[in-house]
């Protein structure tokens, strides 16, 4: 049974701070990792994906992957109130057409 | 470009009734997925179409659920007869290539009383 674990939060950070969202996964063979953002009542929206160990930066977002530790994280720099949402970690394993999702971490950025 | 659209946005039915959910993927996306989120749980995979063919239906809970994608365009997910545990939000997603780079619809919330 493939599992993806996230702290449900809420994670509260002040505006301008760095938000750090974490995710662990159980399937050591997983190769593709995704972060989706979901505003309340809206559709999940892909914001980052990472396939290789290390860091991947896109604007204020940085995804970090450590396959040895089976750990993936998302850093949001200069957090804004508009970043307040639930962040979903999702993992794909080779040979499968599915994504395994975590329950999501709620992020609250206060002005 | 229109996104993934789902209908209805919310459906309230009684146990034993039938409900049909519809998904219109982004035009040109051959891959169409159904996922479901039950309250308090994570989003879980139901099935995957490539064009009109079912590529993977390993996540379908039981034979009360029937998905179709005639002509490889829109898809329907029918639940018949509905049970209380079927309540949740049903998401449709489509993609052009990669399995993980999905475009989701806003979901159809199903409440079974």
Largest sheet of chain A: 6 strands, mixed
Instruction: Return residue spans of chain B where pLDDT drops below 50 for at least 5 consecutive residues.
Output: none
Helix content of chain A: under 10%
DSSP, total strands of chain A? 11
| Strand count of chain B | 11
Order of helices and strands of chain B: EEEEEEEEEEE
Strand coverage percent of chain A: over 45%
Which percent bin holds the helix content of chain B?
Answer: under 10%
Residue-averaged pLDDT of chain A: 94
**Distance between the first and last residues' Cα of chain A:** 40 Å
**H-E order of chain A:** EEEEEEEEEEE
Arithmetic mean of pLDDT of chain B: 94
Give the topology.
The complex is a heterodimer of chains A (111) and B (113).
Chain A (H helix, E strand, L loop, with lengths): L3 E2 L5 E4 L4 E7 L6 E7 L6 E6 L3 E5 L2 E6 L4 E6 L8 E8 L7 E2 L3 E6 L1
Parallel strand pairs in A: 2-11
Antiparallel strand pairs in A: 1-3, 3-8, 4-5, 4-9, 6-7, 7-8, 9-10, 9-11
Chain B lengths: L4 E3 L2 E4 L5 E6 L6 E7 L5 E8 L2 E4 L8 E4 L6 E5 L8 E8 L7 E2 L3 E5 L1
């Amino acid at each position: 049974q493939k599992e993806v674990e996230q702290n449900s939060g809420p994670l509260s950070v002040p505006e301008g701070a760095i938000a750090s969202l974490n995710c662990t996964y159980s399937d050591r063979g997983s190769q593709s990792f995704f972060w989706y953002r979901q505003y309340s009542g809206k559709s999940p929206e892909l914001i980052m994906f990472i396939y290789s160990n290390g860091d991947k930066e896109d604007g204020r977002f940085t995804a970090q992957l450590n396959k040895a530790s089976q750990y993936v994280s998302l850093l949001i720099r200069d957090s804004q109130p508009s970043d307040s949402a639930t962040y979903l970690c999702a993992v794909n394993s080779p040979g499968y057409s599915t994504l395994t999702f975590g329950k999501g971490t709620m992020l609250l950025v206060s002005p | 470009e229109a996104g993934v659209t789902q209908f209805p946005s919310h459906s309230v039915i009684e146990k034993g009734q039938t409900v049909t959910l519809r998904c219109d993927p982004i035009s040109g996306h051959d891959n169409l997925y159904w996922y479901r989120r039950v309250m308090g749980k994570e989003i879980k995979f139901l099935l995957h179409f490539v064009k009109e063919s079912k590529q993977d239906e390993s996540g379908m809970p039981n034979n009360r659920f029937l998905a179709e994608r005639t002509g490889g365009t829109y898809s329907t997910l029918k639940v018949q007869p509905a049970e209380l545990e079927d309540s949740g939000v049903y998401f449709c997603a489509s993609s052009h290539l990669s399995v993980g780079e999905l475009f989701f619809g806003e979901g159809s919330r199903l409440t079974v009383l």
